[in-house]
Amino acid sequence: MEIENCPFSQQKISSKGGFVSLSPELCYMQPKSGGEEMAGTLRGIFTVRWKPTKDLAVMALSIILVVGALYTATVVVTPDVGGGMPYFFLYAGLMAVVLGVGLPLFWMVIVRKRPLADLGLTFKNLRRSLALQTLLAILLYITGLKIQAESFETVIPLVALALCIGFFEAVFWRGWVLNRLEEAFGILPGIVAGSVLYSIYHVGYGMALDEMVFLFFIGIMFAVVFKLTGSIFILWPVFQPMGQLITLSKEGLDLPLIASVGFIEALAVMVALVWLAQKYLRRYQQKSLTGNPSFYLKEAVL
Asked: How many CA atoms lie within 13 A of 256 on its CB side?
């Protein structure tokens, strides 16, 4: 039987000289039957709540900054200025690395001391996630959506771009935005609101309204797929980048081969930021077990 208003998913308790977070699974005294579990899942999907937090405010600010950086790079500066370097630094550097991945990591890990899994950065259900995204990519290919490129030199920069921006979008739009909206309003409202925001984000690319309506449904699809495992690895590095690659090739985007180096470097920096954040969390958890006085004071304030 499930204990209502279980405190363990929200509070921290002292254990071995420190504080540890207990998972919601501790709120269950005995296993549920299949019917009860299904009913609980459906209730969870359609539950609507109103619990806006500081996380939501920071998330909203980050969206404004991301769209602003994208619009400046694509519409104001354009890829034609300065050999494309200003565009690259605004697009991949500022938007994707700093605002898209760096800012959510800073807020969730450094400020809030929350696990990377709350950003969808988890290896939990990794095999299932990779298997499902491979299946989805195969279905995408079978439907006739294929990459249109003239040569190897044309494809490589687009692949690098799709992998880089695909990682950013998986972390930012699903792990960061979708999860914060779900925490504040519920699963279904979070998916709908997140998809609306995802479509509006493409204003930064200068897209027309009809394209943004289509992207709303693409956002719904990505959100639902993400919720299957709660890991970005059900979207990246195959399924979502493949969709982006098909779109980029159809639009006829032509990038020099050297551009692939820049996008791979940007991806490497994002991965490095995730690694550093995980390292910080481990040090923080070690301090919690050594009885550091400053740690206790900070936890008491939180």
From this structure: 10
Dihedral pair phi/psi, residue 145, rounded to 5° = -85, 100
Q: Where are the domains of the chain?
A: 1-34, 54-286
Task: Tell me how crowded residue 199 is: count the other CB atoms within 10 A of its CB.
Answer: 21
The DSSP code for 112 is T
Question: pTM for the full model?
Answer: 0.83
122-138 CB burial, b ≥16 within 10 A, e <16: beebeeebbebbeebbe
Q: How far apart are CA 76 and CA 291, in angstroms?
A: 53
**What is the C-alpha separation between 282 and 286, in angstroms, rounded?**
6
Q: Which residue has the tokens 């027309």?
A: 208
Per-residue pLDDT tens digits of the chain, which is 302 residues long: 333 344 333 334 333 333 344 444 334 334 556 566 666 666 778 889 999 999 999 999 999 999 999 999 999 999 888 888 999 999 999 999 999 999 999 999 999 999 999 999 999 999 999 999 999 988 888 876 666 656 778 889 999 999 999 999 999 999 999 999 999 999 999 999 999 999 999 999 988 899 999 999 999 999 999 999 999 999 999 999 988 888 887 777 788 888 999 999 999 999 999 999 999 999 998 888 876 555 444 433 33
Q: What angle do CA 191, 196, 199 make, to 5 degrees?
A: 120
3-state helix, strand, coil in the chain (%, to 5): 75, 5, 25
* Residue 63 to residue 280: CA distance in whole angstroms: 25
